[in-house]
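ok trying this again, last paste got cut off
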Amino acid sequence: MESNNYYLESVKKQFLYYKTLGEKAIDQLEPEQLFVAVNEDTNSIATIIKHLSGNMLSRWTDFLTTDGEKEWRHRDSEFETSLQTKEDVLEVWNTGWTCFLNALDSITPEQLTTIIYIRNEGHTVIEAINRQLAHYPYHVGQIIFYAKMLKQSEWVSLSIPKKQIQFV
């Protein structure tokens, strides 16, 4: 069971890291930049956040007892523009992350092998967590990439800026 505790702590750190990266990118943007879409086939950062939050709420609300694709979720509407302000975007962001992180905190090591369902397909809790460990950072990466493009030369690196690594 000790390794299961380690796993839970490790994934929590990973998710919090990606949440923080997303927030640091969002913080650099002007409110109107959250709503920029370069073409009809591209989602704005606000839309990506709306989708990410919708996924988190659907997957992690009552995740041990109900299918992760909730009847009340309307995935297609996550890709429609409805958020109007940066405050709206941040509220949706925080609502999704709070739901997800609370669900992670509720998991006991013994539950990691419990079978849960996403779209009627059985997954162990560990598999469901790993599935999201690929999905959520993917979207955070989109947010960061988009923010870098929007900020251009005003972008403040979230890691070590180019040409600043010193070898000793």
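PB: full thing came through this time. The mean pLDDT is 93.
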